[in-house]
Amino acid sequence: MLSTVATVLAGLIGAGITLIGVLAMWQPRNAAGFGIPATPIDDPAVRAWLRVKAGRDITLGLVLFLLMINGDAALLGSFMLVTTVSPIVDGLSVLRSGGTRAAAFGIHFATAAAMVVIGVLLLLA
User: How far apart are CA 121 and CA 112, in angstroms?
Assistant: First the structure.
């Protein structure tokens, strides 16, 4: 039961991050909620970096689904724990760029915390 709940939660994280990446890839304005203030979204260089982030998000989400299909809870849990680096670095980037603490903690660090909980639950299952 614990494994099933944790796997569903991991799937929600995977779906969310994949959707965020897809939206940011085709509509970079959607990435403005990342938390970095006054992002010059019409600047081609900024759009390029947003697409790099979008590609990373899509990849992480798809790899998560691949691991879910594999059915190995320990491997999925380990992946969840290791990939908490991404939202932590994202949150730190928001803070260091003058973004709001609400965005850093409410979006990025909260996602990292959820991923740690899910990863631990999967390892315990």
Answer: 14
pTM for this entry: 0.85
Q: Total domain count for the chain? A: 1
Q: Give residue 102's domain range.
A: 2-124
What pLDDT score was predicted for residue 31?
66
Residue environment code for 56-69, b if the CB has 16+ CB neighbours within 10 A, otherwise e = ebbebbeebeebbe
Q: Are 93 and 52 in contact (CB under 8 A)?
A: no
Q: How far apart are CA 86 and CA 39, in angstroms?
A: 20
Could you report the per-residue pLDDT of 39-57, keeping only the tens digit for each? 677 788 888 888 888 899 9
